[in-house]
């Protein structure tokens, strides 16, 4: 089983990638990292990771789910990515796990999969407005799971977020 991790090429939130990635690997789940560009991606706190491919190169059939990593860079690089939104819709429509943390749940909102669904997001005004525009039912708690969708509100929720994604994969 493999998961696709989507990260911004710059200013992703380090622990929102590193904590879930470690948990997935410890659970025996393979991971691939993709971004808007292939190559080295840098975190807000200095972490570096390699995006093996761009979103355009992803074959959704290779993965059990998608996890979109947050951080300030997600607003700049991921929110507006039509291809990432398309991937999120495909995973959702095929009943696979779709997860996002911090500011990244906005990608799910813009993909049109959160209307009437329970969700959470980092409480930045622009992110909250996007979630409300998409008609998500917002909760101010660390992690929310609604069917195969998992959202979390920030770096402090990274471990619980990873555990919830793993539980959904086991269903």
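Q: What amino acid sequence fits the structure above?
A:
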């Amino acid at each position: 089983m493999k998961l696709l991790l989507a990260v911004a090429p710059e200013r992703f939130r380090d622990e929102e990638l590193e904590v879930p990635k470690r948990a997935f690997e410890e659970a025996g789940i393979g991971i691939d990292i993709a971004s808007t560009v292939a190559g080295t991606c840098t975190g807000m706190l200095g972490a570096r990771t390699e995006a093996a491919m761009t979103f355009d190169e992803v074959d959704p059939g290779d993965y059990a789910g998608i996890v979109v990593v947050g951080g300030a860079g997600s607003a700049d690089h991921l929110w507006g990515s039509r291809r990432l939104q398309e991937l999120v819709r495909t995973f959702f429509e095929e009943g696979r796990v779709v997860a996002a943390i911090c500011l990244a749940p906005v990608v799910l909102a813009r993909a049109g999969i959160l209307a009437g669904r329970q969700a959470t997001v980092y409480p930045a005004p622009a992110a909250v407005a996007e979630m409300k525009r998409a008609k998500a039912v917002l909760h101010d708690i660390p992690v929310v799971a609604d069917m195969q969708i998992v959202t979390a509100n920030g770096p402090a929720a990274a471990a619980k977020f990873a555990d919830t994604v793993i539980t959904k994969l086991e269903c």
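Q: And what stands out in the fold?
A: The mean pLDDT is 97.
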